[in-house]
């Protein structure tokens, strides 16, 4: 329940910290800074901390400490106000040689919620993991300490590839007039979305202008070419540069302060974000949810530069815009995701999300996990649900009839390779983005997953949830 330290000059042993909720804390008799004179009658001045610990370990029954109380004790830990944080990094005390007492340390993974009960030591904080019945806190590195560790690691890496710089360089080379900023940025978009041989193959195979409203894989209520763009553009959709982005870089804050937020019934609904590896069923779940609850749930209407087809005006399933307007929206950062398919641009815009929310409906989007960060604003207050596959056996059992669209636009049954890829991609995404997910849901039985998803969506809107403090402490729109 306490740690000790030795004053190297005088050889005196002091109580370094009292663990919140531990025996020493509950006794109220020991405080940081108290001078330890004797343990069970053994003088300890001049001993090493390890020798003092050995005396304690050899003792049985009652342990008697003789202490000289610290004359200016720090304010009692029980009076300090707890701060709640979400861990944005993983930490393991057993791999940290600098921790004063590894046994008193607490391991955590990114995304874990922690109650920090004591920040009086600028290097080591005391915390409990939530939800937790444990009364005794454990040691975690302070934000400052973790940041300096991250900085050391960052500088020790040989090089950092800045994808944004590369994209700009390339586009500058291809521009006739380097002063035209907008054109340059548009060229950057093109650079980022240069179609691969695979996608060109799709163009050739699918060059049938009527296919968007016909074909055996038409998804009711969902735009086929938009879905096909999504399906074939994984990893080519717009991505921010993680080397440079202050929010995503390895130097960003290791803890995010959070507080409980409950949506007021008159406030706009929280944005619901579904994320998952390609093929896990995110689109199927979203489609089913909207189909069964069309009045309360809606997806944002995508934008496209594709021409309007005959008969589409009656019930447009896109915002049809000119290429110029689309490109203007790109440079104005109006798109969450965008890309090119069959020579036309497609994208999900923030404005389209706002349209749904303004109508009083719950907006549900599915985005690539690397794009979740840009939706994390106090205005949208996204509730992010990660969809993951079930166990390997159940995945193969439940997906016997499942189909994915091939690069040649054929609907294919999932093969062993697809299952392996899906499992690996899902595992990697969860490791990398866990801190951005509010909930993780296993998509085993479709019907059951849909109803659990619907309950989660209700929970997000009606029950208190942990959100970044910035989302509730100010009313500024971002
Ligand atoms: N729980 C499930 N049981 C059986 N089949 C499922 C289940 N979930 C999804 N499927 C099927 O798996 C296939 C792929 O699903 P879906 O198209 O929704 O994937 P996705 O996650 O949206 O991937 P992408 O973004 O690459 O399109 C579809 O045929 C869908 O009907």
From TrEMBL:
PANTHER family, per the entry: MEMBRANE-ASSOCIATED GUANYLATE KINASE MAGUK
Domain Guanylate kinase-like residue range list: 269-458
Occurrences of domain PDZ (ranges): 1-71
Domain SH3: residue ranges: 80-150
Organism annotation: Tetraodon nigroviridis
Keywords per UniProt: SH3 domain
SUPFAM superfamilies xrefs: P-loop containing nucleoside triphosphate hydrolases (SSF52540), PDZ domain-like (SSF50156), SH3-domain (SSF50044)
Family of this protein: Belongs to the MAGUK family.
Short name of any one Pfam family annotated for the protein: Guanylate_kin
Protein name: MAGUK p55 scaffold protein 4
CDD domains from the UniProt entry: GMPK (cd00071), SH3_MPP4 (cd12034)
């Amino acid at each position: 329940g306490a740690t000790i330290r030795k004053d190297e000059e005088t050889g005196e042993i002091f109580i370094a910290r009292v663990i919140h909720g531990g025996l020493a804390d509950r006794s109220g008799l020991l405080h940081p800074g108290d001078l330890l004179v004797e343990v069970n009658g053994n003088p300890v001045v001049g001993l090493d901390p390890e020798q003092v610990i050995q005396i304690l370990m050899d003792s049985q029954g009652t342990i008697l400490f003789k202490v000289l109380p610290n004359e200016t004790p720090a304010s009692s830990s029980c009076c300090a106000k707890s701060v709640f944080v979400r861990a944005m990094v993983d930490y393991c005390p057993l791999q940290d040689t600098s921790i004063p007492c590894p046994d008193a340390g607490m391991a955590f993974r990114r995304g874990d919620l922690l109650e920090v009960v004591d920040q009086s030591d600028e290097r080591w904080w005391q915390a409990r993991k939530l939800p937790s019945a444990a009364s005794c806190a454990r040691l975690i590195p302070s934000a400052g300490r973790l940041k300096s560790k991250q900085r050391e690691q960052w500088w020790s890496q040989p090089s950092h590839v800045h994808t944004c710089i590369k994209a700009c360089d390339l586009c500058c080379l291809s521009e006739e007039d380097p002063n035209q900023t907008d054109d340059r940025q548009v060229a950057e978009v093109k650079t980022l979305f240069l179609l691969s041989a695979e996608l060109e193959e799709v163009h050739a195979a699918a060059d049938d202008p009527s296919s968007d409203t016909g074909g055996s894989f038409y998804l009711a209520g969902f735009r086929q070419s938009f879905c096909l763009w999504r399906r074939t553009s994984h990893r080519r959709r717009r991505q921010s540069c993680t080397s440079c982005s202050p929010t995503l870089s390895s130097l960003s804050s290791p803890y995010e302060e959070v507080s409980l937020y409950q949506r007021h019934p008159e406030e706009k609904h929280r944005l619901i974000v579904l994320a998952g590896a390609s093929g896990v069923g995110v689109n199927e779940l979203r489609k089913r949810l909207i189909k069964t609850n069309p009045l309360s749930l809606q997806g944002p209407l995508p934008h496209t530069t594709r021409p309007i087809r005959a008969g589409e005006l009656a019930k447009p399933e896109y915002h049809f815009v000119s290429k110029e307007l689309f490109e203007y929206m790109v440079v104005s950062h109006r798109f969450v995701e965008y890309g090119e398919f069959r020579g036309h641009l497609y994208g999900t815009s923030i404005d389209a999300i706002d349209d749904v929310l303004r109508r009083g409906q719950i907006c549900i989007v599915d985005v690539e996990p690397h794009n979740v960060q840009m939706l994390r604003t106090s205005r949208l207050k996204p509730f992010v649900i990660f969809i993951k596959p079930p166990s390997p056996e159940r995945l193969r059992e439940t997906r016997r009839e499942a189909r994915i669209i091939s690069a040649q636009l054929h609907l294919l049954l999932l093969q062993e390779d697809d299952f392996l890829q899906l499992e690996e991609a899902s595992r990697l995404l969860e490791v990398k983005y866990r801190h951005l997910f509010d909930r993780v849901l296993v998509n085993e039985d479709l019907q059951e997953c849909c109803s659990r998803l619907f309950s989660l969506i209700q929970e997000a809107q009606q029950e208190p949830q942990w959100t970044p403090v910035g989302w509730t402490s100010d009313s500024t729109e971002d």
